[in-house]
Amino acid sequence: MPVNVLTVDVGTQSLRACIVNKKGEIIAIERVKYERAYHSPLPGYAEQDPDVYWEALCTATRRLGAGNPELWKEITAMSVTTMRDTCVCVDEDGRPIRDAIVWLDQREADIGIEDFPLFSKIGFGLVGMSETVKTQRRITKSNWIRMNQPDIWEKTYKYLLISGYINYKLTGQFRDSAASLIGHIPFDSKTRGWMNKSSLLYPVFDIDKSRLCTVVESGGVIGTVSESAAQATGINPGTEVIATGSDKGCETLGSGVLRNDEVSLSFGTSATIQFSSDRYVEPLPFLPAYPAVAKGYFNPEIQIYRGYWMISWFKKEFAEKECVQAAAEKTEPEELLNRYLDSVPPGCEGLLLQPYWSPLLQNPEAKGSIIGFSDVHTRVHIYRAIIEGIGFALYEGMENISSRMKTRVRKVVVAGGGSRSDAICKITADMFGLPVYRLHTYEASSIGCALAVFVAKGEYRSYDEATEGMVRYEKPFIPDDAVHGKYMRLYNDVYRKIYGRLHPLYKAMYAIRKK
């Protein structure tokens, strides 16, 4: 039985390798920041050399082993969790034949649903999802590659997510966890397997099974670390690689969210709200409830694309002074900015932001908006409006999913970079009107990843028992009822009405941009 396990978390901007014990303590950690998160061959594109992630893994694990030689000898099991929807085309030898297309990429294939079976087109039309399905087909990157780089597609032996690519580099096996297969691929989240060609949604993705990896259920063994991978990474050869899940799924599990009256908020590059449910409940029609790391569970989710990425945008465009000051103080600009949050009252004196910085699933023409400007507003008001706007969008997601699940949320757990700020956690508690709990560590994905390995190896008899043993919270942030009441008036009387009022303008702008 493993005493400690190794986890690798492949993120958008950096990679973390951790040694985690059975108590949920991160004994050692190494972080490698990529030189750049992605490059853009054209505006809106986001690509990265897949081996940037692999080389970062090798650097992190070699450092981890060198700094903790006695602990390193004891590692007999590990797992990998990664960002989602980042695709890699490889040849028969597992070599990438083009750069990975990162989940932030906004390119679209020039394709509709004219060639869909008639019954599919009628079905989508009856439920008002024709435009959504068209959008999903256009933004599916395999469709873009097939149409624009047919020579690349012809050479593609396997079409993998980045999780599958890292698993291959470690074990030599084209395998991936069912709970990691989240992206624009023909995966059936409800059955936790590849779609059949008769599936209603299969034509959206249309990737032959021969090009897809083998699915391993959560807790199963992907393979063992090969001799060549051991030489590159310093990981002991023969170490078992256990199937866990995606970064968000591991984060939800690592936050201790297993009941349907609890939610996990992720304040990362992409902001999300996730539930755990033992029933398959779609958060929106035709938007799947993702397979959870815990077998038999699902994670209904609403995602705010480029959520806390907006903080990076704000820093670049408005916070040059704080960036210079932070460098001098050897701290992060966000830490300085968060000190100013309390200087602006809840509601930002009438400034309200809707964080649609990337297209929505059902409303691809949507754009972000900021309304209510007056001469009292400063850049600090804009900064707080970003925090509150993300909060309103996540609250709306909670309302929608809890209604579909017929449950009432009683507990909120926060994770991700934004959760480090006490001010942001307190704002969240006031907006949601619920106690907000913060994990004892910021590395929730690594805790969830390790937790799943300990359950798989029999160190814990169940996920509930493992959660009791490994998940701890700091003192909760308690909402102010009066402030919550003000937020709810803003939410119901203003925020929820913004999109409907601006929709005709968004639609007109979308049509002009497409010409």
Structural commentary:
The chain is an alpha/beta fold and about 525 residues long. It is built from 18 helices and 23 strands. The strands form eight sheets. It has a six-stranded mixed beta sheet, sandwiched between helices. A five-stranded mixed beta sheet has the order 19-16-15-22-23, with helices on both faces. Strand 22, helix 15 and strand 23 form a beta-alpha-beta unit. Helix 11 (about 310-320) packs across helix 12 (about 320-330). The N and C termini lie far apart (about 60 Å). The mean pLDDT is about 90.
Sum up the structure in keywords.
515 residues; alpha/beta; six-stranded mixed β-sheet; five-stranded mixed β-sheet; 40% helix; globular
Brief write-up:
The chain has 515 residues and is an alpha/beta fold. Helices cover 40% and strands 17% of the residues. It is globular, with a radius of gyration of 22 Å.
Tally of contiguous helical segments: 18
Describe the largest sheet: 6 strands, mixed
Q: How many beta strands in the DSSP annotation?
A: 23
Low-pLDDT segments: none
- Helical residues, percent: 25-40%
Percent in strands: 15-25%
| CA-CA gap between termini | 61 Å
What's the helix and strand layout?
Blueprint: E1 4-10, E2 14-21, E3 26-33, E4 47-48, H1 50-67, H2 69-73, E5 77-82, E6 87-90, E7 100-101, H3 118-126, H4 130-139, H5 141-148, H6 150-155, E8 158-161, H7 162-171, E9 175-177, E10 187-188, E11 193-194, H8 202-205, E12 214-216, E13 221-224, H9 227-233, E14 240-242, H10 247-254, E15 262-267, E16 271-274, E17 290-291, E18 298-299, E19 301-304, H11 309-318, H12 320-329, H13 333-339, E20 352-354, E21 369-371, H14 379-405, E22 411-415, H15 422-432, E23 436-438, H16 444-456, H17 463-470, H18 481-514
Helix pairs in contact: 10-16, 11-12, 12-13, 14-15, 15-18, 16-17
